Each structure stands twice: as C-alpha cells, then as structure tokens.
Amino acid sequence: MNHFISLENLELELIRDLIDDAISFKKKKAFPNLSNHYISNLFFENSTRTKLSFEMAEKKTGMEIIYFDAESSSIKKGETLYDTVKTLNSIGVECFVIRHTQDRFYEDLISRLNVPIVNAGDGCGDHPTQSLLDLVTIYEEFGTFKDLKVVIVGDVIHSRVAHSNAKILTRLGAGISFATPEFWRDSNMTMGTYTSLDSAISEADVVMLLRNQNERHAQQYNEKNFLEQYGLTKERASKMKPSAIIMHPAPINRNVEIDEDLIEAPQSRIFTQMTNGVFARIAVLNYVFNS
Ligand code: CP
Q1: 103 and 203, same domain (yes or no)
Q2: Which residue in 179, 182, 221, 212 sits closest to 198, CA to CA?
Q3: Is 173 in the pocket of ligand 1 (CB under 6 A)?
Q4: Are 173 and 81 found together in one domain?
Q5: What's the start-to-end Cα distance of the chain, in Å?
Q6: Are residues 141 and 255 in the same domain?
Q7: Ligand 1 centroid, distance to 130 Cα (angstroms)
Q8: Residues 224, 229, 235, 238: is their CA dihedral positive or negative?
Q9: Which pLDDT band holds residue 55 (cuts at 50, 70, 90)?
C-alpha cells in the first residue's frame, strides 16, 4: 500500500518510472487491471480536470467507484474528514483521492488510518498528480529535464502547481525562474530566481503559466491590465524559441494569464497536458496498488 501525497519525498528513480509508465500506457493503450478495487474521489474544492481524469483513469483500469458528493454528504452535518474517510473505509473503500482546501489535510489521515491517500490538491500546498502530468508532457517533448529553462509565470504564492513543479523540476536538473508580480512572490520558495517574462521569454524552453487563484486572494488586483503587464501576449509569444512550449494547468482565465488566441496555438501543450493527466493518474493508481 502506498500513499501519493507529494513528489517531494519520492526517489527520482521512482518518479522517472512513473513518467515512463504513463508514456507507455498512453502509447500501448494497455492498462493495469485494478478491477475489484473500490475507490472514492472526495473533492471539497471545485474541479473539472483532476476529478474527471481520475474517474477516467479508474474506469480504464476497471476499478469500482463509490461516488461521493460533499454537498449532499454528512460533512454538511458537521462530520469531520477523518470520520468520513473512516466510514467509507469501514464499508469497503480501499483508496481515497482527496482534494481539500486545507494545506496538508492528509497528515491526520495517514497517521491514523491504514488506507492509501492520493492528494488531488491541498490548499496552497501541493498538486502532485498535476506535477506528474506536467513532467510527462515536458519529457514527451524534450526527452530530458536536464538544463531545460522553465519560467513559471503568475500567481506563484497561491499556486500548488508552482510549488510542486518548482521543487521537482529543480531536483530533475531543470533551471527554474519565476516571472511574477511582486505581490505574488513567495518568500518561502528557496529555489529558482525571479525575473520578468520579457527578460525570460526568448531563452525559455517551457513557459509554464499559472492560473490566477482568485478564490484565494485576500486583496483584489487589477485584472484588466494583467495580460499586458504580466501575461503571455501574442507579442511576447512571438519571441519564444521555435522549440519552446506553452503550458497552463487550467482552468484558464482567458485574456488574463494568456491571450486566448494562444491557447490552441501550435506551441501550446495545454490540452496535451489534460490528455496526459489520465495516463499519469493510471500510473499513480498502479503505484498505489501494485508496487
Ligand atoms: N488543473 C486542475 O487541477 O484543474 P481542476 O481544478 O479543474 O481539477
């Protein structure tokens, strides 16, 4: 039994194996058989991609899904997350995919319960399966991480994608820089350098945009001028290397983080990321049950 809560504590060799597994599942369209395993997806924050691509991964591996809806559950009567997971485990659920508003929500669960927990996003903390699918997308493109220049653009301090990716890409040998407004810098982030998108754009191999996390902002910012000041405009994109790619975890605030004409441009891998998410999550489920 394995948890999957962060890439931080996993050996690089294992992460490389998970990337290889995901690419192999994508190419061969042959998946591990996890039928007769019962799983629940517990989402306490909105999600389209993560929730439904987990569901797709679960269906492709033959798993039995026990559906959970936070709004109609006894959470609304005050039941705790621990009691909810303990209850579902008691009736036979063998694995939990959980997204929660609270940073490190999983610590209490893994210290008290003997059931695998997969982190589908914790507060402003980590989003390890998004990170894995991003790694798959970068590796498919370049065949390496070493010495790639990755510029992470936008709302760094509130973004679990930025946190997860900066840490793992640094470990894998990529060079990280952040192009973020002063007010969204994260002083706890010890890796990478700060830059502006105008300075970084012509050298970057990967332009990794972030979503502006409006639901986490204590103070308003000027969304109207954001694209021109900090986002990926067509003019900035025209300075990218021909081999460079555009990434964004989505959902996208069109014409805020990125000019909407660039979302499906030839250098964009945004929808490839979503496709790869299914195969990355199959690799994670296989790791949880079979390694
Ligand atoms: N990228 C991502 O986590 O999207 P969702 O919030 O739709 O799951």
Answers
A1: no
A2: 179
A3: no
A4: no
A5: 8
A6: yes
A7: 8
A8: negative
A9: very high
150 with 259, same domain: the answer is yes
Answer whether 213 contacts ligand 1 (Cβ < 6 A).
no
- Which residues, other chains included, contact 283 with Cβ-Cβ below 8 Å and sequence gap of 6+? 18, 19, 21, 22, 25, 132
Separation CA 201–CA 209 (nearest Å): 12
Decide the pairing of beta strands 206-209 and 245-247: parallel
pTM above 0.85, yes or no: yes
* Domain annotation covers residue 22: yes
Task: For residues 156 and 260, state if they share a domain.
Answer: yes
Range of the domain at 240: 128-273
Residue type, position 240, single letter: M
Residue 3 pLDDT more than 90? yes
- The total of other beta-carbon atoms located within 10 Å of residue 37's CB is 17
CATH of the domain at 146: 3.40.50.1370
Q: How far is the CA of 52 from the centre of ligand 1 (A)?
A: 9
d(Cα 172, Cα 134) in Å, to the nearest integer? 13
210 in Cβ contact with 257 (< 8 Å) = yes
Q: Do residues 114 and 161 share a domain?
A: no
DSSP 59: H
Q: Which atom of ligand 1 is nearest to the CA of 53?
A: 8
| Shared domain check, 59 and 193 | no
For 66-105, how does the pLDDT look when each residue is reduced to its tens digit (9 = 90+)? 999 999 999 999 999 999 999 999 999 999 999 999 999 9
Percentage of the residues of the chain whose pLDDT score is greater than 90: 89
Distance, in Å, from the CA atom of 85 to the CA atom of 210, rounded to the nearest integer, reads 31
Q: Residues 63, 29: one domain?
A: yes
Ligand 1 centroid from CA 5, angstroms: 16
Confirm or reject: Cβ of 49 under 6 Å from ligand 1. Answer: yes
Count of domains observed in the chain: 2
CA 289 to centroid of ligand 1, rounded, Å: 24
